[in-house]
Known about the structure:
The structure is a single chain. The radius of gyration is 19 Å and the shape is globular. It has helices at about 5-20, 50-65, 80-90, 105-110, 160-175, 185-200, 215, 245, 250-255, 260-275, 280-290, and strands spanning about 40-45, 70-75, 95, 115-130, 150-155, 180-185, 205-210, 220, 235-240. The model is unreliable at about 1-35 (pLDDT under 50). About 40% of the residues lie in helices and about 20% in strands. The longest helix is centred in the N-terminal third of the chain and has 16 residues, at about 5-20. It contains 11 helices and 9 strands.
Amino acid sequence: MNTRHLTSALALGAVGALALAGCASGNQAEGGTGGGGEKGTITLGFLPSWTDGLSTAYLLEDQLGKLGYDVEMQTLTEAGPLYTGLAQGDVDIYPSAWPELTHKSYMDRYGDKIEDLGAYYDNAKLTIAVPSYVDIDSIEELKANAARFDGRIYGIEPGAGLTKQTQETMLPGYGLNGDFELVTSSTAAMLTELDNAISAQKDIAVTLWRPFWANDAYDVKDLEDPQGLMGDPEALHFLGTSGFAEKYPDAAELIEGIQLDDEQYGSLEDLVVNEYGEGREAEAVDAWLEKYPEAFSTQRD
């Protein structure tokens, strides 16, 4: 485990802990596109500890700034307030949503006030993972080995769709209620537990997802899910508040043209989160654009 990855994760967790609990407007994150903005202001809402949205938020900040918009970065700590902000118009864009399965409950509640601006990645999935040295390969094997894991699966934020899927579907579906407790707190805390366990070569099970840089930073493997209770693969979407495309047609056109494959997405996330890190996100996006100058169809100079 390269220490820069853990440092980045802990820094992001600290940012998340200090982030707003709601969607009050007027708070621009350091590094936002101040100046210019002759076309108005677009607010991006994201969760810093969920690095898929962190990386695509800074990509959009760069591209929308080049279109002439002032971009305000709004950080939150849970998905629920972010969907509320979208529905109320306090946030203009959620730059990496999981609306098909993981966040379906939020879409069921707020979907009529939210606009789908397009999917940028089509193979996202939720997983239960263990270090590669652990000699079990399937979720079905967890029940017989509960003592080895101290009856715990380490999860992320309580309001995450991954948490809901694990708690309400996977655990009862595999008969793990009573044998396992899902321990939730934050993404950074989960990664700390994983890092500590791997350093000590101890057994640990965690909730993870793909795409996520931690799958490459740590030597882990996804447990097989023969019943499919962690859900099918889904696409990651850009979501806008209702009426966004009509109000900002050029921005909507640009966003619709973003289509990233595994290599492109993985490189973007690694550059923003790890190679450059907090405070240097704009440099990371510039480096990524140099590496993939034609990554999406409406690329601007």
